[in-house]
Structures are given as C-alpha cells and as structure tokens.
C-alpha cells in the first residue's frame, strides 16, 4: 500500500489504553510502512473526546513526518467516512473475574452501528481489524451490518495469541524467535483457543521433535498461551495494552505488506468451510497474505488431538454467534 496519498486510518477507542500504545506507532509508519503517509481519524464516545484531543496534541508534538492529519469524532458515521483501514479497539475491556462471553451484550451493540457506518461511508478498499472483545464475534456483528463490504475485509485479532505462543515455544526450545515458523492459533480469541505446534518448525526441524515433551505441551504451553490475557489482568490490574497494540500493528502490516515466504501467521477471518469450521464464522486460522488478501493455509493434516481442540473452540464461536443472533445483532 506504499502511497503518497495519505491512507485514512480510523481508530476507535482512541483514548483508551490500547489506543495510547497504538496511535504513535501508526503515526511513525510502523502500521503501513515507512513510505506511506497516514491521516488518523480518532473515534471516541463523547466522554472520551477530551482525552483524544490531548493525545492528538502529543501526536503533533512528535512531529512525525508521515502524519498528514488528525481528526477526532464522536460518532461512527463521520469516524469511518473515507476510512481505508479501521482498527476497532473501543469496547468495554474484561475485568477480573469476567469471561469474554459476559461482554457479548455490552459490546455487541457497539459493533452493529459501526459496521453500518463502515458500509455507508468507508473507502472501497476498507480493511477492518477488530481488537475489542469478544473480538471474533464483534467482527461477525460488524460484518453482518456491512453487506456491501466483502466479508473477507473483516478480521479479528489473534496475533497477540500467536506472538505469545511464539515466545513460549522459543523459550522452551532455547531457540531464537526468528527460528520459529508455522505456528497456528485456531478458533476463538478466548481461553478455548488452540495454539498448535504440530506444523511448527524450529530452525527447520519439526517443533514437536525439538521439544519432545507432550506433558509440557498439554499442561503448560496450551494453557499458558490461552490464559495469558487473564494472567496479565491479574498481574497488571488492567488488560494487556502495549502487547495488544503491537499485535494490531503486526496484523495489519502482514495483511497489507504480505507474510514472509515459507511462513504463515494467525488471524481470525471469515471461514470458507476449511478445516470443518462452518462457513461464515470468523475463526482463527493459519493464514498467509499476498496482494492485501488473506488466504487460509490449505491441506494441513489435523490429528485427533488437534481436532478435538479446534472443535471445542469453534463450538464456543457457534454459541457466541447464536447468542448475538438471539440479541438481534445479526
Ligand atoms: N484481541 C485481543 O488480543 C485483545 C487484547 C487486549 C485487549 N483487547 C480488547 O480491546 C478492547 C479495548 O481495550 P482497552 O484496554 O484499550 O480499553 P480501555 O477501556 O482502556 O479503552 C476503551 C476505549 O474505548 C472507548 N469506547 C467505548 N465505546 C466506544 C465506542 N462505541 N466508540 C468509540 N470508542 C469507544 C472508551 O471511551 C475508551 O476510551 C477491550 O475490549 C479489550 O478486551 C483485545
Ligand atoms: O484477555 C483479555 O480480556 C484481554 C485480551 O483479550 C488479552 O488476550 O490480553
């Protein structure tokens, strides 16, 4: 997407903790690349606008050469007008003791009008990343209200889970992060997600052979990755922010600029029925990107261990879909 015309990037929840970690990185060129100027469109609820004004002042004070303008909005119609990239961060975060399912009612209502506003006014090449939880189902709701936008342009973030899994696996193997490839997060961005190392490689060798520790895989790796969000909330008293912003940057950068040859990443995108995931659900898959389009990595062998875990997370996505459908959000 290298361009001399600024790319319009809308960020919702701009004054929140992820927003604060995200906006400066977008403005410095880390989202789209060092040659692409950006115009930021910050969308907040009315109570958040004053803080967003303060962040805009700080962005000005960074004198970023790529930042071609900042506008602040308190309604989705204006906020998404002309947007090329939309990062849907604004939502109510999970607090201690809450499960993501508790957030469905609170947050589902935000994403229906945002989807409608994207449908009405975003640019033809709009690409949407939903970060706000429950991210997969919020993306489903937003996409359902944007019938004129191809469903493949809506995605939800599991890149943070992917990055968490990369770190845990590299640490266990005593390997460099750059030697770990082909990890996958399947399913929902929730505690049911399945971080899969069965196709992963470490310095070209199968990760399961390098690690050779099924007990670690089942009792340590999978729960550590899947429950990392709750562990951060417990430790910090607030949900992950800088690492979430980092993952959002990684996700959009991969989407727009492509994934490296011979590797893949994880993103929650609309299912085409691959791997037994019902078509239409927004579920995490192993994905590559070329030319600004995600493709699900085809033809991976899925053994019984993985099958059970993928199915469990997909079952949760189906429950969430049914719940928002009952709420009239689909
Ligand atoms: N997918 C992931 O990996 C991942 C990781 C971390 C956090 N999250 C989620 O991201 C979301 C944001 O987290 P945070 O820590 O920045 O929260 P936060 O409470 O610090 O900020 C949320 C911001 O959104 C704003 N907001 C609320 N409703 C809005 C609306 N309708 N339009 C525009 N703005 C709105 C609020 O005013 C607030 O400024 C939460 O749902 C959190 O659970 C997802
Ligand atoms: O777990 C949460 O609620 C926050 C976020 O989704 C995370 O994974 O850190």
UniProtKB/TrEMBL annotation:
Domain of life of the native organism: Bacteria
Active-site feature positions: 189
List of residues binding substrate: 94, 100, 133, 164
InterPro entries: L-lactate/malate_DH, Lactate/malate_DH_C, Lactate/malate_DH_N, Lactate_DH/Glyco_Ohase_4_C, Malate_DH_AS, Malate_DH_type2, NAD(P)-bd_dom_sf
Domain Lactate/malate dehydrogenase N-terminal: 8-148
Keyword tags: NAD, Oxidoreductase, Tricarboxylic acid cycle
Signal sequence region: none
Gene3D superfamilies: Lactate dehydrogenase/glycoside hydrolase, family 4, C-terminal, NAD(P)-binding Rossmann-like Domain
Reaction it catalyzes: (S)-malate + NAD(+) = oxaloacetate + NADH + H(+)
All residue ranges annotated as the Lactate/malate dehydrogenase C-terminal domain in the record: 158-323
Residues that hold NAD(+) according to the record: 13-19, 107, 114, 131-133
PROSITE patterns: MDH (PS00068)
Gene Ontology BP, a term: malate metabolic process
Protein EC: 1.1.1.37
Gene Ontology molecular function, alphabetical: L-malate dehydrogenase (NAD+) activity
Family: Belongs to the LDH/MDH superfamily. MDH type 2 family.
Cross-referenced NCBIfam families: MalateDH-SF1, PRK05442.1
Cited function: Catalyzes the reversible oxidation of malate to oxaloacetate.
Name of the protein this chain belongs to: Malate dehydrogenase
Gene: mdh
């Amino acid at each position: 997407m290298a361009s001399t015309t600024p790319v319009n990037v809308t960020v919702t929840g701009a004054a929140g903790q992820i927003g604060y970690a995200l906006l400066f990185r977008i403005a410095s060129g880390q989202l789209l690349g060092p040659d692409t100027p950006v115009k930021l469109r910050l969308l907040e609820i009315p109570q958040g606008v004053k803080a967003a004004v303060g962040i805009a002042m700080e962005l000005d004070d960074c004198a970023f050469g790529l930042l071609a303008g900042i506008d602040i909005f308190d309604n989705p119609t204006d906020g998404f007008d002309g947007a090329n990239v939309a990062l849907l961060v604004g939502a109510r975060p999970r607090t201690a003791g809450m499960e993501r399912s508790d957030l469905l009612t609170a947050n589902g209502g935000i994403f229906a009008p945002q989807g409608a506003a994207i449908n009405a006014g975003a640019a033809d090449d709009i690409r949407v990343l939903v970060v706000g939880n429950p991210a997969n189902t919020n993306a489903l709701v937003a996409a359902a209200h944007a019938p004129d936008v191809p469903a493949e342009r809506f995605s939800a973030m599991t890149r943070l889970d992917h990055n968490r899994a990369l770190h845990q696996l590299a640490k266990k193997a005593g390997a460099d992060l750059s030697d770990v490839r082909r990890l996958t997060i399947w399913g929902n961005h929730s505690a049911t997600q399945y971080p899969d190392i069965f196709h992963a490689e470490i310095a070209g060798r199968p990760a399961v052979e390098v690690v050779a520790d099924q007990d670690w895989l089942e009792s340590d790796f999978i729960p550590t990755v899947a429950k990392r969000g709750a562990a951060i909330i417990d430790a910090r008293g607030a949900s992950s922010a800088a690492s979430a912003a980092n993952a959002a940057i990684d996700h959009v950068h991969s989407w727009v600029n492509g994934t490296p040859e011979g590797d893949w990443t994880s993103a929650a995108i609309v299912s085409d029925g691959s791997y037994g995931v019902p078509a239409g659900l927004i579920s995490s898959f192993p994905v590559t990107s070329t030319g600004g389009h995600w493709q699900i990595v085809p033809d991976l062998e899925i053994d019984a261990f993985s099958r059970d875990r993928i199915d469990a997370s997909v079952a949760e996505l189906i429950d969430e879909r049914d719940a928002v459908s009952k709420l009239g959000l689909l």
